[in-house]
Specification:
Blueprint (H helix, E strand, L loop, with lengths): L1 H12 L4 H15 L7 H16 L3 H15 L5 H14 L4 H13 L7 H17 L3 H16 L5 H16 L2
């Protein structure tokens, strides 16, 4: 609880300064440390806290948080934790092109074969939601690459393939 209070205090006191950025990075590292040994509800709570802290700081701090969160998706989390993290990414990069691009590039780098179908659909929905809030062409392009990587994997069910195809259509229509 002390770490969460410190993280919120940092986000309230600091605005777009180097100190804020470094403080947020340390807080995010602390919050996201050892997530594999925790329950889904704790993981989701810590992810949401990290997002709330980073949202109030610079784009660099948001990009750092996004990359840490997406790399965490590739580790040992349950479907509900993956879905919760993907949803949180939408809030993190609201109207921030650089942050949204970083999220999409991180999603594109990830190997998606270790996740369940519901987790993959959650990730796809996170990609769509991030693009909806950041309808920049560069973000759409990175999202298309991330979705193409999902489609090119031979390990997904037809429901995941359909969701990825539908997301590509939705992204192309997003204004």
């Amino acid at each position: 609880m002390k770490k969460l209070s410190l993280a919120f205090l940092l986000s309230l006191i600091c605005n777009y300064t180097f100190a804020c950025e470094e403080g947020v990075k340390r807080a995010v590292d602390s919050l996201l440390n050892n997530l594999c040994s925790q329950t889904s509800s704790k993981v989701i709570r810590k992810v949401r806290t990290s997002v709330q802290v980073a949202k109030n700081c610079s784009t660099d701090a948001k990009v750092y948080t996004a990359e840490k969160l997406v790399s965490g998706l590739r580790s040992c989390h349950t479907s509900s934790a993956v879905i919760g993290t993907a949803r949180s990414m939408i809030d993190l990069c609201d109207r921030d092109m650089q942050c949204a691009e970083a999220v999409m590039m991180s999603f594109a780098r990830g190997n998606s074969c270790g996740h369940t179908s519901s987790a993959m659909i959650g990730i796809i929905n996170g990609i769509k939601g991030t693009v909806a809030r950041n309808p920049f062409n560069s973000v759409k392009n990175e999202a298309a690459i991330a979705l193409a990587n999902i489609l090119s994997s031979s390990c997904h069910t037809s429901s995941v393939v359909y969701a990825a195809e539908q997301a590509l259509i939705d992204i192309s229509l997003c204004e």
